[in-house]
């Protein structure tokens, strides 16, 4: 797999995580399921990619975490978007739309 | 950004709680997933299994999260260090060898660099040293005082020019405690031209100089003030007697100022106007007497080229105005500090050569360590394979190996630097010539430390990356399958072999160079100078100082010769105005007989110019090859004649025989007949190219400087007493210095001695490295093949076969390396021949010596491994596994 493609995928993953957390705080497994759900099953995020991304975003201050009981009353680490995270989401959405527009135009031009 | 700094802080300081939180999160994720799977209808056990599979392994996820964390590099580095320390401590012999090897290599380099730095890179310690220049006459520094005054007043390039005279030893009397010291006489503008401020009191100035005896002052150096006046601040204003003449101490120079010369630091400074008072002679009015060093700082914005042009113009003006003394004079710029070009040029060539050799030593050490590290890496193949199999990354393993290399090299570098600092302090305090305050301040500075650090890191990386390929190619699967012995052992020539050959070659180069140097040194002590300093005494006096007028000098010189000849035990005595290897030796342009235009370009040779009496050749044991000696009839009333050396004869006349009876001309057209030819000799330095020389009869070329060569087999101290007695019988007021000729030559041989010692030490270091290198290789080879050897012995192999199997390879490598090194060394000695007298590799002794040295090195290094191989007990070995 080439460098470019991993970059693109990583960027996509960040956007998907931010998007998943935009509605409500979720724990890691919840985020994974939510992503599968909002992409209509097209993406299944591996935990080996998800957790490193989450921790990086936490260090960047886009998300913050707290421990609280889950729906089944287990303790789980819930992630929530911060203000910076929401700004980042807006930014990434805008960039994504731009990429899509440009790419679509490019692909259809031929 | 602040968030990341907080994270870094948290990650590093509360590492455990961070790790714990991650663990908790992963655990809880597993539980959440398990629950989900159980809802799908799996049993608890199956659900957990599936959960773990989906998560992809707790350990793996944890590693991945760790890798993105801030500060991970630091953490990893700490872990690497910890592991490294543990692995190094586990093999103390290896670690110690490596550290000692590097300490030697880096230490040697630090010492050599520091000397180079002190002598050649660091400017003399005066403010704004970068545009400070020495003005030389032709290529030699000394100038006359009248020329200096013209230079000072007429030049347009220098802010101010000052003059310095090395006065020799003087008597100092501060009231009841006579001692001697080495001062410097300077022009009045000296301190102002340098831009110095006194530590105490005041300096003398140009305005203090109002003619002879107008400035009876002395400025002490800081060191002399501390050592002889206990740093007493009331010393200013006191009177001190120098050579029985009272002078007033007016100040103390700043601590960091040691004079304008690197290796000579004067005790105090006296205005040059006091020369007649203090030294009892007055050379100042004489335009032909060159004994002042003229230096100064260029005006801001004046480039050296412009200054050179200005000096050219001044030279031709002087040449026209004072043709008698300055005809054809030419000035050149040189850097001050090392007696101008006289010392700086050979010093530069030599130091560059030594630096190169020291660099080679370090390179050899790196090759040595590189092969050691490669051997270790392949012994650790199994460990590396396991770590790869357990998910460690290759980069991580490499980094750990590099950390190991760097830790070793930094430790070795630190120890080497500590050692070199001791050596350097010793060198700085060393006074190579007794009684003369000459020393070499080579104390390390920041640059030395920086270079040592750089070398340590560079060499660490250099030998650390040797195992790189091994690690990159390591295949965990195969290694675990086949056990220890698969890596590298199959190939005939490994990287380690190449490294060993390189190392041995380098060591052979070092051994060759040092042997060449030592042989050259030996030859220079017993060699032919064109005279024989053994069994000869030199009496030195100056008739000018003793009050003789020029026209009475030859008569007095002859009386001295006659008197000495009557001393029992004196086999020959002769006079010379100047001796070979004295610092003053003068030279003149000579022209072929048909020359009418005496431009410098038309000269036939630049010949050394001596004046001698009859008997000098016998006293000096200089062989007369053809023609006759000078006689007492060759005086001003008879035709001008001269003896020339073989080089002169060949250069001007084509051969020795054609020279006798031939004529040549001096500048201006004075015609001289060659009456005899003497053997070639050395005149200025031991390593010079053969110079032409001429010897005029002393009655035709009068000089106040008087050197008497006395040949005698009697005890020198006895002889000295007899000489003094006899000469003071003629004139009790004669100032006499009596030495053996060998002592007199100490200064000339000094550089060669230092060179031989330095190269000898480097050669020894090289040999030591070769021993450790071959030893490491041989013992490694033996230990790797102990089992095989055991089997061979069991199958009936004799001692010879065992030795051939175990050490044959190492011996072959040694031979290849030695031959390559010898060839390179022979090439490298061309460089050495610039400094070491008669350095020639075409010397059977050198070739035999190198071969013998390499053999001894090989035998020494292979001795223990060979014994181990021979002692192999097949039963014990076979039982072991």
Summarize the structure in words.
The complex is a heterodimer of chains A (110) and B (881). With 110 residues, chain A is α+β, with helices and mostly antiparallel strands. Helix content of chain A is 66%, strand content 15%. Chain A is built from 4 helices and 3 strands, in the order αβααββα. In chain A, strands 1-3-2 form a 3-stranded antiparallel β-sheet. The relative contact order of chain A is 0.14. Chain B is an alpha+beta fold and 881 residues long. Chain B is built from 30 helices and 23 strands. In chain B, the strands form 3 sheets. In chain B, strands 1, 2, 3, 4, 5, 6, 7, 8, 9, 10, 11 and 12 form a 12-stranded mixed β-sheet that branches. Chain B starts with a helix and ends with a helix. At the A-B interface, α3 and β3 of A face α1, α2 and α4 of B.
Give keywords:
heterodimer; A: 110 residues; alpha+beta; Arc Repressor Mutant, subunit A; three-stranded antiparallel beta sheet; 3 strands; disordered N terminus; B: 881 residues; twelve-stranded mixed beta sheet; six-stranded mixed β-barrel; 23 strands; elongated
Could you outline the blueprint of secondary structure elements for this entry?
The complex is a heterodimer of chains A (110) and B (881).
Chain A: H1 3-23, E1 26-27, H2 28-38, H3 47-60, E2 63-69, E3 75-81, H4 83-109
Antiparallel strand pairs in A: 1-3, 2-3
Chain B: H1 2-13, H2 15-39, H3 44-55, H4 58-68, H5 72-90, H6 92-121, E1 132-137, H7 145-154, E2 158-166, E3 170-173, E4 179-181, E5 184-186, H8 190-194, E6 200-201, E7 217-220, H9 222-229, E8 239-242, E9 245-252, E10 268-271, H10 275-279, E11 293-298, H11 304-321, H12 323-326, E12 331-334, H13 341-379, H14 381-389, H15 394-429, H16 446-464, H17 468-473, H18 476-482, H19 495-526, E13 536-542, H20 553-565, E14 570-576, E15 587-592, E16 605-612, H21 616-620, E17 624-627, E18 641-645, H22 646-653, H23 656-659, E19 663-666, E20 671-678, E21 693-697, E22 705-712, H24 716-730, E23 737-740, H25 741-744, H26 746-784, H27 786-794, H28 799-832, H29 844-870, H30 874-880
Parallel strand pairs in B: 5-10, 7-9, 16-21, 18-20
Antiparallel strand pairs in B: 1-11, 1-12, 2-5, 2-11, 3-4, 3-8, 6-9, 7-10, 8-9, 13-22, 13-23, 14-22, 15-16, 15-19, 17-20, 18-21, 19-20
Helix pairs in contact in B: 2-3, 5-15, 6-13, 6-15, 6-16, 6-26, 13-16, 13-19, 13-26, 14-18, 15-16, 19-26, 19-28, 19-29, 20-24, 26-28, 26-29, 27-30, 28-29
């Amino acid at each position: 797999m080439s460098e470019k493609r991993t970059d693109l995928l990583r960027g996509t993953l960040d956007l998907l995580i931010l998007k998943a957390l935009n509605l409500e705080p979720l724990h890691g497994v919840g985020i994974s399921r939510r992503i599968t759900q909002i992409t209509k099953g097209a993406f299944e995020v591996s935990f080996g990619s998800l957790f490193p991304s989450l921790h990086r975003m936490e260090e960047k201050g886009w998300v913050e975490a707290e421990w609280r009981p889950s729906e089944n009353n287990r303790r789980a680490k819930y992630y929530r978007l911060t203000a910076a995270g929401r700004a980042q989401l807006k930014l990434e959405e805008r960039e994504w739309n731009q990429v899509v527009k440009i790419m679509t135009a490019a692909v259809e031009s031929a | 950004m602040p968030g990341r700094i907080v994270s870094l802080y948290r990650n590093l300081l509360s590492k455990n709680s961070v790790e714990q939180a991650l663990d908790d999160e992963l655990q809880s994720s597993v539980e959440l997933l398990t629950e989900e799977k159980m809802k799908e209808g799996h049993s608890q056990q199956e659900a957990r299994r599936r959960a773990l599979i989906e998560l992809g392994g707790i350990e793996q996820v944890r590693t991945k999260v760790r890798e993105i964390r801030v500060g991970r590099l630091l953490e990893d580095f700490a872990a690497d260090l910890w592991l490294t320390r543990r692995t190094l401590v586990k093999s103390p012999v290896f670690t110690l060898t490596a550290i000692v090897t590097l300490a030697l290599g880096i230490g040697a380099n630090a010492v050599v660099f520091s000397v180079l730095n002190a002598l050649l890179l660091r400017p003399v310690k005066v403010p704004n040293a970068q545009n400070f220049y020495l003005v030389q006459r032709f290529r030699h520094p000394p100038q006359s005082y009248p020329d200096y005054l013209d230079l000072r007043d007429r030049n347009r390039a220098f802010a101010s020019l000052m003059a310095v005279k090395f006065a020799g030893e003087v008597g100092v009397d501060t009231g009841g405690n006579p001692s001697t010291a080495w001062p410097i006489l300077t022009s009045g503008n000296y301190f102002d031209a340098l831009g110095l401020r006194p530590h105490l009191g005041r300096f003398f100035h140009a305005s203090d100089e109002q003619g002879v005896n107008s400035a009876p002052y002395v400025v002490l150096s800081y060191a002399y003030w501390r050592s002889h006046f206990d740093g007493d601040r009331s010393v200013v204003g006191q009177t001190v007697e120098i050579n029985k003449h009272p002078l007033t101490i007016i100040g103390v120079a700043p601590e960091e100022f040691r004079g304008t010369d690197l290796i000579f630091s004067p005790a105090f400074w006296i205005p040059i106007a006091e020369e007649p008072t203090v030294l009892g002679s007055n050379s100042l009015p004489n335009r032909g007497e060159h004994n002042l060093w003229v230096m100064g700082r260029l005006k801001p914005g004046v480039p050296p080229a412009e200054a050179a042009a200005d000096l050219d113009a001044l030279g031709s003006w002087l040449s026209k105005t004072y043709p008698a003394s300055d005809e054809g004079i030419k000035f050149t710029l040189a850097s001050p500090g090392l007696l101008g070009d006289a010392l700086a040029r050979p010093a530069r060539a030599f130091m560059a050569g030594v630096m190169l050799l020291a660099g080679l030593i370090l390179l050899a050490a790196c090759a040595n360590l590189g092969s050691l590290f490669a051997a270790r890496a392949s012994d650790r193949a199994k460990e590396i394979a396991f770590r790869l199999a357990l998910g460690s990354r290759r980069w991580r393993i490499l980094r750990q190996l590099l950390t190991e290399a760097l830790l070793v090299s930094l430790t070795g570098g630190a120890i080497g630097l500590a050692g070199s600092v001791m050596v350097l302090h010793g060198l700085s305090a060393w006074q190579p010539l007794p009684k003369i305050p000459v020393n070499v301040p080579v104390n390390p500075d920041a640059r030395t430390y920086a270079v040592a650090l750089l070398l340590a890191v560079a060499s660490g990386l250099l030998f650390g990356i040797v195992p790189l390929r091994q690690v990159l190619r390591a295949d965990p699967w195969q290694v675990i399958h086949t056990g220890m012995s698969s890596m590298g052992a199959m190939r005939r020539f490994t990287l380690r072999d190449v490294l060993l050959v390189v190392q041995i070659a380098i060591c052979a180069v070092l051994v060759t160079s040092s042997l060449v140097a030592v042989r050259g040194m030996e030859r220079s002590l017993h060699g032919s100078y064109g005279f024989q300093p053994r069994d000869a005494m030199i009496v030195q006096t100056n008739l000018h100082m003793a009050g003789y007028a020029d026209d009475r000098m030859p008569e007095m010189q002859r009386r001295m010769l006659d008197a000495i000849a009557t001393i029992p035990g004196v086999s020959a005595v002769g006079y010379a105005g100047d001796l070979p290897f004295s610092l003053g030796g003068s030279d003149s342009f000579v022209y072929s007989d048909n020359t009418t235009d005496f431009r410098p370009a038309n000269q036939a040779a630049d010949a050394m110019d001596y004046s001698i009496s009859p008997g000098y050749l016998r006293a000096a044991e200089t062989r007369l090859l053809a023609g006759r000696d000078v006689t007492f009839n060759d005086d001003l009333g008879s035709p001008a004649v001269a003896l020339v050396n073989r080089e002169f004869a060949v250069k001007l006349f084509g051969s020795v025989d054609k020279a006798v009876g031939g004529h040549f001309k001096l500048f201006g057209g004075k015609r001289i007949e060659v009456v005899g030819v003497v053997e070639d000799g050395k005149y200025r330095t031991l390593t010079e190219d053969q110079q032409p020389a001429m010897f005029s009869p002393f009655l035709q070329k009068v000089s106040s400087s008087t050197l008497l060569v006395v040949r005698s087999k009697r005890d020198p101290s006895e002889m000295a007493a007899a000489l003094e007695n006899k000469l003071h019988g003629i004139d009790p007021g004669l100032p006499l210095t009596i030495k053996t000729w060998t002592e007199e030559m100490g200064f000339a041989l000094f550089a060669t001695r230092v060179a031989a010692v330095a190269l000898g030490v480097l050669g020894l270091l090289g040999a030591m490295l070769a021993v450790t290198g071959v030893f490491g290789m041989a013992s490694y080879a033996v230990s790797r093949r102990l089992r095989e050897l055991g089997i061979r012995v069991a199958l009936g192999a004799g001692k010879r076969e065992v030795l051939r199997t175990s050490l044959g390879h190492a011996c072959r490598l040694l031979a290849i390396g030695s031959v390559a090194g010898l060839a390179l060394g022979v090439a490298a000695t061309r460089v050495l021949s610039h400094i070491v007298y008669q350095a020639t590799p075409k010397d059977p002794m050198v070739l035999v010596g190198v071969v013998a040295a390499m053999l001894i090195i090989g035998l020494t290094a292979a001795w223990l491994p060979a014994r181990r191989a021979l002692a192999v007990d097949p039963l014990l070995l076979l039982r072991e596994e």
